[in-house]
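Progress report, Aim 2. The chain analyzed during this reporting quarter is listed below.
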Amino acid sequence: MKLRQATKSDLPTILEIHNDAVKTLAAIWTDALETLEDRQKWFDNRLADGFPIIVAEDDNGELLGYGSYGPFREKSGYGKTIEHSVYVTPQSRGKGAGSVLLEKLIELAKQDGHHVLIGAIDSENKGSISLHARYGFKVTGELPQVGFKFGRWLDLTLMTLILNNDPAPDAYVHD
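Predicted structure tokens for the chain:
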């Protein structure tokens, strides 16, 4: 399995993986399928903001999945915290692509100087929760019935990984 930075030529497959997750999983809390234009905008914004988009591919160059991270919340006090996403093709689930992508995102987040990496996971997705726990993520919150999809309420599990022991940034002094 090979990891690399995603390119625009990967977008049709990334779109296919994303839309399959929208249709079949409670991982993306929307019923709205995206267009190639939507994914292009997402891709451009992530790169413009300095965030990675990585893909895993097999020995034949077939995409197995993708991962990325971006801001957790927009206020400046969250500037050292990021939230990640990892999605793999249906046939790749449970075969290691998600693990490899998550491990690389953790490495990149550390290199980029982020302090905390957050996974926001559908609470019924025990596989993803276990995967995150194997990489040191801790369950730090359970939000009951904050989402809905497939005609049912969904609970959200927040898992966090502290990436470094950096001291807190200096306080901002208002004039």
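Helices lie at 11-24, 36-48, 97-111, 126-134. The two ends are 53 Å apart (CA to CA). These observations will guide the mutagenesis work planned for the next reporting period.
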